[in-house]
Structures are given as C-alpha cells and as structure tokens.
Amino acid sequence: MQIGYKLFAEGYSPQEMVRQAERAEEVGFDFVEISDHYHPWLESHGHSGFAWSILAAIAARTRSIGLATGVTCPFIRYHPALVAQAAATTALLSDGRFVLGLGAGEQLNEHVVGRPWPGAVERHEMLRESLEIIRLLWQGGYQSYEGRHLRLVDAQVFDLPETPPQIAVAMGGESAAQVAAELGDAAFATEPRPELVRAYRQAGGTGPRYAEVPLAWAPDEETAVKSAHRMFRFGVTGWKVQAELPNVVNFEAATSFVREDDMRSVFGCGPDPERHVAVAQQFADAGFDRLALVNAGPDPDGFFDFYAKELRGRLGEIAPAG
C-alpha cells in the first residue's frame, strides 16, 4: 500500500502547492497528485494554476516523493502530442518519479478552446486514440497517426526518459476500465467501488489502482464538516454531473442544495484517526492500493502533523478486510 497526498490546485495558489508538496515529502507521503484543470469547481476556490508548471517546480524542490496528474484530459484543450512531450519532460526533471494520470475530462475545463463537448462514448474513443498517440511518440523517432478523431503528423519527442512514465487511466465505469486495462499501466478512481476494480482485472489489468480518499482534518468535527462543505461539496454530485456542467456558476447552482450532513456521510471529518482510517479502509476493501488522501479541512499544516503522528503508520499497513 502506498499513501499519497492530493494537491488541491483549485483551492490554493501555485506557490502554496509547491510548499505543500515539500511538506508532504517531509512527513513521509509516497506521492503527491495534482488535478490538471483550467477552472476551479466553485467561485470561492479562487485558484487553478497550470499543473505542468507546478509539477516542474515540485520536481526541482523535492528529491524522493512521487508525482502524478490526477488527471489530465489529453484531447480538446490539449493534443496528446503535447501531453506526451510534457509528461516526458516531467519524468526527466523528476528523475523518473512521475506517473501520468489520464481521463476523459470535464466540460468545465475543456470547453474553453471553443470546441463542442462530445458525448461519453466519443470521449472514450478519443481517450483511446490519445493513449495510442502518446505510446507511439514515446517509442522515439518521427511518428504519424490517423484516427477517427485525432491526427498526428510527423511529430517526434526529442527528450525522452529511458523508461517511459507509467500511465494511470481514470475509470468511472466498465468502458473506461477496459481502456485502463488495455492501454494503461494503472487505474484511477474517486469512489470505493469494487466493481470498478473487478472490471479492470477482468479486462486484464494488473497494475496499481489509485483512488482519492475524502478526509477533512480539524481540531473538532464541526469545523471539519463546514470546511469540507465549503471546499468539496461539488464532489458529492458524482461524475455524471461533474463531467457535463460547463461553468463555475453551474456548479455553484448544482451544489446549492448539498447539506453539511451529506459531507459528513462521505468524508472522514474531525480529529479522530479512527474515522479517517475507516474511510480509507473502504477503498482498500474495494481493491485500491494507491490511496491519495484529500484534505478538505481548513489547515493543511495541521493535517500534515496529524498524518505524521496518527495516520502514517496505520495507513501504510492497511489491507483489505479478510
């Protein structure tokens, strides 16, 4: 079991993301994972720095901690050729510590370039073609590709690591699990759903399984719950909502009826380590072995201290029940 830390780039400045990554390394996290978004989810978040610049700064300021995107959509806002180049460069700058997380994206971030938002089936087709293009470019030399949705013409990534980065593919259903198994090295999810892991394994997937664990540390439970509601109430809407709404104002409206008790039922809230371990255990029981801890509490440094004193040893030894 590896334990990581989610860098919430929508809630903090780029400089603070780098500082938190350094603290994560100090207290013993195995990796940090950062979202690759253009917009924040909610107006109150107020931030959304460029993930690749932040990753480069983290690579320069850390020595051992792993880095990952969680996750990048490699089409529409980007072309997979650019993602292949960015990931290769990040792998070099981090001395091989980088994992490329890829997924089918959200309209919130991708519509900004003025292209239509495809349906889910087409997005998974585009994700598959993107993975094929990235793998092709990582072979070296000039490459071309002609797909149904995407093209590549005489492109070469000149700076390649000796070993390509692992690719973790986000899976919210059976179709994406199939793509993760066939073209990825690992799988990524945000819910403790054992059927996702089963679908990944039945499709031939044998790699690590990443998941985000929703926690909120504060000295008392009520403060933690209020902070989780303020920062992460968008998260309980589910991916069918998160993938489709186009703007921050839509998420403000969609989450206006989310209650604090809705957050309490999902997040490990407060100072009790037992509650945090119990939430993480759900993901271990579902078959995930790379747990990225989300802290929706108001005090990142307090959470780092709490992790070092109360959670690190226990979560590192967590295993599926039975």
Automatic annotation (TrEMBL):
Residues 12-289 form the Luciferase-like domain. Signal peptide: none annotated. One of its GO terms (molecular function) is glucose-6-phosphate dehydrogenase (coenzyme F420) activity. Keywords: Oxidoreductase. It holds the Pfam family Bac_luciferase. It comes from the Bacteria. Its EC number is 1.1.98.2. NCBIfam families: F420_G6P_family (TIGR03557). This is F420-dependent glucose-6-phosphate dehydrogenase. The lineage of its organism: Bacteria, Bacillati, Actinomycetota, Actinomycetes, Streptosporangiales.
